[in-house]
Amino acid sequence: MWLFLLSELILFGGLFLLYLTALRRYHQDFHDAAKEMSIFFGGVNTAILITSSLFVALSVSSMKRGERRRSVWLLAGTIFLGCAFLFNKYLEWSEKIHHGLFPNSPAMTSLPDGRIFFFDLYYVMTGLHGLHVAVGIGLFCGVLYKIHKESVSPGRPVILENCGLYWHLVDIIWIYLFPVFYLIT
């Protein structure tokens, strides 16, 4: 599991390096493009993911203490919050698309190169992150099924723990995406 998480860090680390390199080259364009970002959407998604990570940690802890029912409810809460994150991201992307800010749109192609690159990176990085959130939701649904079938139990919480580690990584990646696209530039 740790090797898989390391490979995910390398993937996103490379994208963050690309972002930093482009920021250095197109500083003013990135600054101008960042004005189009909604701190509200980003802030809500940050709160959602931090809360969902808390729920996962509490679910693992509850399972280890033998509180299966509480663990299941906390895991269901994590799934709900993951879905809320994706729905919020859908609303944010819809707003951008409505204003013509999507790859290869006429509005985008008329922008300076740096602003185009900012939005291209925004869609790639947040889209890839959203895909990871969707995978995490699917994994947690599978874990709920395994808890129901008693394959995951207080004596065998490894699958829940590993999925929790994955979810925490997804959360940490968002903790970096939020300031990079919504605050710093």
Notes on the protein architecture:
With about 180 residues, the chain is an all-alpha fold. The protein has helices at about 1-25, 25-35, 40-65, 70-100, 105-110, 115-150, 160-185. It has a single domain (about 1-185), classed as Four Helix Bundle (Hemerythrin (Met), subunit A) (Up-down Bundle), CATH 1.20.120. It is about 85% helix and about 0% strand. Helix 2 packs across helix 6 (about 115-150) and helix 6 runs antiparallel to helix 7. The radius of gyration is 18 Å and the shape is elongated.
Shape: elongated
- What is the count of β-strands? 0
H/E series: HHHHHHH
CATH class: Mainly Alpha
Helices, by number, come to 7
Q: Mind telling me the CATH superfamily name?
A: Cytochrome c oxidase, subunit III, four-helix bundle
| Helix-residue proportion | over 70%
Distance between the termini: 34 Å
Indicate how many domains the architecture comprises: 1
Average pLDDT reading: 94
Main beta sheet: none
Provide the β-strand percentage band. Answer: under 5%
What CATH architecture do you see?
A: Up-down Bundle
Structural Rg: 18 Å
In a few lines, what is going on in this structure?
The chain is 84% helix and 0% strand.
Please supply descriptive tags for the structure shown above.
single chain, 185 residues, mainly alpha, Four Helix Bundle (Hemerythrin (Met), subunit A), 7 helices, elongated
